[in-house]
Amino acid sequence: MDSYTSSSDMSAGMAGAIFGAFFIPCLIIWVIVVIGSWKVYTKAGKPGWASIIPIYNIIVLLEIIGKPIWWIIMLLIPCANIIFGIWMINLLSKSFGKSEGFTIGLIIFPFIFYPILGFGSATYLGPSAKEAQGATPFNPNDYRDPFNNQNPPPQNY
């Protein structure tokens, strides 16, 4: 009976060691990503604590990148969530003036690139929507029909 106890103690100790070997590095990486994303949200003029609240962090991220709230629904659809998640990360890097290569870094190595984005020299340029990239925002009163060269009649509101 004594050999059974020592063997179960040894297997429990090995399980604890394996758990610690995986848990502690994951915890360290998670803390680094949280600190980096906290700083990214702060740079964008949003509260840093918003980056750690589930669902609310996505709402605030959508505000940062200039996209509508209904995108959350797209993140609930399998396969579409991958596309929209990558798209959101790309728009985040564009909002800070970074390229698609930086987006790939944010996806593959977030524990390196979020702190670079948060603590580096990148500044928040505004939402990555067309309005922030130099194009004029959509004005319904200034609409021009692409199939008709004549101006529409003026609208009085």
Describe the structure.
With 157 residues, the protein is mostly helical. It has one domain. It is 58% helix and 0% strand. Helix 1 packs parallel to helix 6. It comes from Mucilaginibacter gossypii. This is Signal peptidase I. Keywords: Membrane, Transmembrane, Transmembrane helix.
Task: Write a compact overview of the structure shown.
It comes from Mucilaginibacter gossypii. By secondary structure, this protein is an all-alpha fold. It has one domain (7-128).
Q: Which helices and strands appear, and what pairs or packs with what?
A:
Layout (H helix, E strand, L loop, with lengths): L1 H42 L12 H10 L5 H4 L5 H16 L4 H9 L1 H10 L38
Helix pairs in contact: 1-6, 2-4, 4-5, 5-6
What features would you highlight for this structure?
about 160 residues; DUF5684; Signal peptidase I
In N-to-C order, the SSE pattern is: HHHHHH
Distance between the termini: 90 Å
Arithmetic mean of pLDDT: 81
Structural class: mainly alpha
The percentage helix is: 55-70%
Question: What's the assembly state of these chains?
Answer: single chain
InterPro entries: DUF5684 (IPR043739)
Protein name: Signal peptidase I
Transmembrane segments: 12-35, 47-65, 71-92, 104-125
Keywords: Membrane, Transmembrane, Transmembrane helix
